[in-house]
Design goal:
It is a single chain. The chain contains nine helices and no strands. The protein is an all-alpha fold and 196 residues long. It has two domains: 49 residues, Arc Repressor Mutant, subunit A; 145 residues, Tetracycline Repressor, domain 2 (Orthogonal Bundle), CATH 1.10.357.10. The longest helix is centred in the first third of the chain and has 25 residues.
Amino acid sequence: MSRASTVDLRARLLRAAEAEIAVTGPARASLRAIARRCGVSHQATAHHFVDRAGLFTALALEGHQLLLQETKAAIDGTPAAGGQRVAAAGAAYVEFSRRHPALFDLMYRPDLLRNEDEDLIAARLAHRDLSLANIAAAQERGWGADVPTAELAVLGWAAVHGLAVLQRELIVSVLYPEVDVDSILRRVVHVLDALG
């Protein structure tokens, strides 16, 4: 097998895993089903991934890297006044969960991943560091200055992660059909921005 076709198969397996997770959920996605989607044997996956946890870890790593890239773009595209960049990062998180539901579902399933994987740890820490730096920069301009930076980071993450999960699971629309998730997100952004 040529190097190009080997790289191509690895990429195809990752995309197939993402597609399978979108249909079955991460817990039920099997290596056999993923291999079938690629038109290869179950054994062919072993050339790239030792097992399902290895494949899922590589896919979760892609997700964290993409989330970091999209968060940076949202921050860079937003004025620095008040907490606007913090709010933009939160909105980017919720939007990521909408556009990449399979990745989002997998990224926060430690039971299915190799959590000791150095690349995965580094990607998670890179997003944390971006969040801390973004919040600290806003605090230097007076936004949320009385709250420890790490506490604001965890509070903000909890809020946007909860909103992302609730809207993805359609819980908000079932229990509160009159409420628009985008409107809630705008209000969260307004409240965050008002901390300054």
